[in-house]
Amino acid sequence: MKVITFILSLVLMAPAFADDENPAKELLLKMADAVHNRNFDASFVVVKGKSMEPYRWLHAKQGNTELEHLSLLNGAGLEMVRIDDQVTYFEPQSEPYSIDTDSIAGPIPEVLFKDVERLSQHYDFVLGGKGRIAGRAAQLVRIESKDEYKFNYWLWLDAESSLLLKSAYVNHAGEMLEQLQLTHISVTEEPAALLLEMLNRKFPTPLPAAAITKNEANTGSNNWQIGWLPEGFSLLKSDRHKLDLNNELTDYYLYSDGFVEISVFVQRPLPGRRPSGALSSGATTVYVHNSGSFDVSVVGNIPAMTAKAIAESVARPL
Which residues constitute the signal peptide according to the record (predicted)? Predict the structure, then answer.
């Protein structure tokens, strides 16, 4: 009887222990620390269906200064440079510009390099199996959505350095929709020469990101009512502007749950009534809804049913 009582007490204590110590979350925190403090030179590809985008990613810590360089290697190219809390973007056919921010807006969700604890209300951190990625021993960590309205996100971390080796958006059937795969990584003692050269370059005066968000959020945010969003999403910014694609005036809203961003565009119907429907590329869904008096487009790394529900919930304020 005493043995049974002892075993029962252990079972009752187990959930509290598991809540206090989550090995999957600890690995994610170690990855964030490694990304900010290690010197590395990596190449990776982002695979969406039949398309593939190659990148080169360099990072270094020179004294107390953090240096990062991310470049898209195909097409006209795209270059992003970060020195501590300033990021400069060099885009084709436009003037370079700088922003006061501590993260590059690249293909890896920024929150993964920060405190992932903020995601714990709407996502679970689950330890998966071990494998081999890019010739290195890897540990799988799964970020699982607590509802069906968002995709899951899986990461394979280098067992030695804690750096990211592979990641994927995964639907609730376990299918990988979009993958990021490292093809090469070199962890070094000294920073790459390219990064050290950045210290001597002159960059544009940064635009305060907080000020931009504040101004945009106060423009056009009351023109429409978004009646439904998955739990955890809040408005980051909104504005009214003309789309480059068709020069049409649109009201724009950007929402985030800290991990996924959702863009909502509302505009007058275009000539020729278009049926409502969704298009997908990798994990990205574009859902267009024709309400009769206005069109709604929802774009984000979310399931089509989620985009459809958001689009159909848009209405004029009462």
Answer: 1-18
